[in-house]
Write a structure and sequence with these properties.
Elements: H1 4-8, E1 19-23, H2 28-41, E2 46-52, H3 59-64, E3 67-71, H4 76-83, E4 90-94, H5 100-107, H6 119-125, H7 128-138, E5 146-149, H8 154-163, E6 168-172, E7 182-184, H9 187-207, E8 216-220, E9 225-233, E10 239-241, E11 245-249, E12 260-265, H10 271-288, E13 293-302, E14 305-312, H11 319-327, H12 331-339, E15 353-359, E16 365-371, H13 373-377, E17 382-387, E18 394-395, E19 406-412, H14 415-428, E20 430-434, E21 440-442
Parallel strand pairs: 1-2, 1-4, 2-3
Antiparallel strand pairs: 5-8, 6-7, 6-8, 9-10, 9-11, 9-13, 11-12, 12-15, 13-14, 15-19, 16-18, 16-20, 17-19, 20-21
């Protein structure tokens, strides 16, 4: 927790308000962050959730929620009726997952005096097309060239080849987790992948609970090293940056996919380059107009300078876990603090080296074996293990909307130890899949 000195800096002007109202979805980490805030403020808070009528929730999670509001979130009058009796008691309005941002824009107008970004800014940050348009208008150098594809045609293929060129990237504007992000290196590949993306996007958007209209862009492929920075921007636009995270993609690791394979902190990037990356995050954040918000930015360090892959008004996935074990601060708690008008509590000195890494099959199919799990779970550096798929389940590629099979969070005292344990997992974890005809495909890594 924070030191006594840090606790003295916490402002608590709204003591008559005691509800932290989450929008869309909540998990155990979000619950824990409210308990941390209670300790800082030295008073009891209530956890609220407003969500759709059909949103599934475990009985265990439902017990942790003090105020559960279910309503038709497509109708403003239904939302207003549902929250009316709580309006004067809400201390902060929070949306964590990407799909919740659009829902937040529907709830936010009912709380005009809370610290929130404008709806326009939230929508831009949640739509890669509008984001690219905004960057092109204010800071074109921080963003790649792009084209909005409304429907497939020979004319659009010719335009992409002429204006964007190869390699290029097909990208949905409102899906998370690298879904439908596909590299194309020649015309026939572009034609096939674009047709597939146009055919699949509606079902993936529905499955992901996204409530915005699905759109696809094709943009310039950026060659370089990928990183990410989360930051906190206050009501006046002042930025507080978390340490930068170093990312290796599935493509880097030999997969035919672009998911985040490893996310490592601290990075070995120089302080000078990290400052340049922060300046680009600053430009992107202020161009969109985000405020009183956590900002998640994915960047590429290219030969032409730093470029923004995406910038969103929410915390990045798994960042709370990475930052806590690497540096000892709580990201979700800071997200709450910035929403109630306080400075975040950030620690920059690394106490451990941390990685979050995920495994997919190299070949999609029914899983017949996941080898190496026992060894992986016995690593002394293991902080947390996740398993989304088991033997008998179908496992596909991230770009086609499928979850990873397994994921590991490791923490070690030195970077050398961390790289050693990463290498062990790469050798041990083997996901074997079988096609419909019964032939087993072993997922050999090309690392």
């Amino acid at each position: 927790m924070a030191t006594n000195k840090e606790q003295l800096t916490i402002k608590d002007k709204d003591r008559d308000k005691d509800i932290i109202l989450f929008v869309g979805r909540i998990n155990n980490d979000h619950v824990a962050s409210v308990r941390d805030l209670e300790e800082l403020l030295d008073r009891k808070l209530k956890i609220g959730l407003i969500t759709t009528q059909n949103k599934k929730m475990s009985p265990e999670m439902e017990k942790k929620i003090d105020i559960l509001i279910r309503c038709d979130m497509n109708k403003l009058n239904n939302i207003e009726d549902a929250v009316m009796k709580y309006r004067d008691k809400v201390l902060a309005l929070m949306a964590k997952p990407e799909f919740s941002i659009e829902l937040l824009t529907r709830v936010a107008p009912l709380f005009p005096y809370l610290r929130l970004s404008r709806n326009r800014s939230l929508r831009i940050s949640n739509d890669k097309l509008e984001m690219r348009k905004t960057f092109r208008r204010y800071y074109p150098k921080i963003s790649p060239k792009f084209i909005h594809v409304k429907k497939y045609s020979e004319a659009i293929i010719k335009q992409i080849i002429k204006d964007i060129g190869f390699p290029c990237v097909i990208k949905p504007t409102n899906l998370s987790g690298s879904k439908l992000i596909i590299n194309c290196f020649y015309k026939e590949e572009l034609e096939k992948n674009l047709k597939d993306a146009m055919r699949k996007i509606n079902s993936l958007v529905k499955k992901a609970s996204v409530v915005t209209v699905p759109k696809i862009i094709v943009e310039e492929f950026m060659e370089g090293q990928m990183y990410s920075i989360d930051a906190y921007v206050n009501t006046y636009g002042k930025m507080y940056y978390t340490p930068i995270i170093e990312i290796k993609t599935g493509k880097d690791a030999g997969y035919d996919d672009l998911f985040m394979y490893t996310q490592i902190a601290p990075s070995i990037l120089s302080k000078e380059e990290e400052k340049k990356a922060q300046d680009v995050v600053n430009k992107g954040t202020h161009a969109i107009g985000l405020k009183s918000s956590t900002v998640h930015c994915e960047l590429m360090k290219t030969s032409k300078g730093w470029k923004i892959i995406e910038l969103a008004g929410r915390p990045g996935g798994f960042r709370d876990e990475i930052f806590y074990h690497a540096f000892g601060f709580k990201h979700h708690l800071n997200d709450l603090l910035i929403h109630i008008g306080n400075k975040p509590i950030i620690k920059k000195k690394a106490k451990k080296h941390v990685v979050f890494m995920k495994f997919w099959p190299h070949k999609p199919g029914k899983i017949v074996a996941i080898k190496g799990l026992k060894k992986g779970k016995e690593l002394k550096s293991l902080v947390r293990f996740r398993q989304n798929k088991k033997v008998g389940d179908y496992a596909g590629r991230s770009k086609h909307g499928h979850l990873s099979v397994v994921g590991f969070t490791l923490a070690t005292k030195t970077r050398a130890d961390l790289l050693g344990d990463i290498r062990k997992l790469e050798k041990w974890i083997k996901i074997e899949t079988v096609k419909r005809n019964g032939k087993v495909k072993k997922t050999k890594k090309k690392i």
